[in-house]
Amino acid sequence: EIVLTQSPDFQSVTPKEKVTITCRASQNIGSNLHWYQQKPGQSPKLLIKFASQSISGVPSRFSGSGSGTDFTLTINSLEAEDAATYYCLQSSSLPRTFGQGTKVEI
Amino acid sequence: QVRLQESGPGLVKPSETLSLTCTVSGGSISNYYWSWIRQPPGKRLEWIGYIYYSGTTNYNPSVKSRVIISLDTSSNQSSLKLNSVTDADTAVYYCATGAAAPDNWGQGTLVTVSS
């Protein structure tokens, strides 16, 4: 089973700040890494698929990069509505696995 | 947009079977992968498994011996059955479309395992 480790676990930021969240895989997963945003009481929302592909309707301040074992989610010019927990998910192999989450507090 | 809605008992006794249904509206259950994912309180998301409309399934080894995911095309529903539950199965259960990067999720339903 592939283990995904996110860092940091928690980040306190101010509006308009740039936020970087990393996800490290325990083995090479190519570009099979996806990012989700989850707000309290809501289901996860897909932000980025296959490491860097944008999703229709997701603000352009969200971007992803990386391949192999190291991946990054970047939020440029953070807005108050971006307060949430962010998760990475790998689809390189079964079982699918998620990172432990990064909580972004504003 | 296809909408998904999970339903089922919110309380299940230990050793019994958890049964949930995901009802699809605004579209057909065909031509999709249907994933089930859960989130124990305060913990990370856990992939349970998925089914393709052809009937092909894949399950997480952590629950494989206890789980069945199925589709009912006549009622446009996906179902999850998990037997011999313990308190470790207490979680919010989600259904979602997609096998690689599920992009459409239901709101989730909390299932508590307790006597």
Protein architecture, described:
The complex is a heterodimer of chains A (about 110) and B (about 120). Chain A is mainly beta and about 110 residues long. In chain A, about 0% of the residues lie in helices and about 50% in strands. Chain A is globular. The mean pLDDT of chain A is about 95. By secondary structure, chain B is mainly beta. Chain B is built from no helices and eleven strands. Chain B has strands at about 5, 10, 20-25, 35-40, 45-50, 55-60, 65-70, 75-80, 90-95, 105, 110-115. In chain B, strand 7 (about 65-70) and strand 8 form a beta hairpin. Chain B is globular, with a radius of gyration of 13 Å. The mean pLDDT of chain B is about 95. The interface of A and B includes residues 34 and 46 of A.
Unreliable runs of chain A: none
Query: Largest chain interface and its two residue counts?
Result: A-B, 22 and 20 residues
Percent range for helical residues of chain A?
A: under 10%
Largest sheet of chain A: 7 strands, mixed
Run of helices and strands of chain B: EEEEEEEEEEE
Calculate the mean pLDDT score of chain B and round it.
Answer: 93
Q: What gap, in angstroms, lies between the N and C termini of chain B?
A: 39 Å
Calculate the mean pLDDT score of chain A and round it: 96
Structural class of chain A: mainly beta
Q: Structural class of the helix and strand makeup of chain B?
A: mainly beta
Topology:
The complex is a heterodimer of chains A (about 110) and B (about 120).
Chain A (H helix, E strand, L loop, with lengths): L3 E4 L2 E3 L6 E7 L7 E6 L6 E5 L3 E2 L7 E6 L2 E6 L8 E7 L6 E2 L3 E4 L1
Parallel strand pairs in A: 2-11
Antiparallel strand pairs in A: 1-3, 3-8, 4-5, 4-9, 5-6, 7-8, 9-10, 9-11
Chain B lengths: L2 E5 L3 E2 L5 E8 L7 E7 L6 E7 L4 E3 L7 E6 L4 E6 L8 E7 L6 E2 L3 E5 L2
Parallel strand pairs in B: 2-11
Antiparallel strand pairs in B: 1-3, 3-8, 4-5, 4-9, 5-6, 7-8, 9-10, 9-11
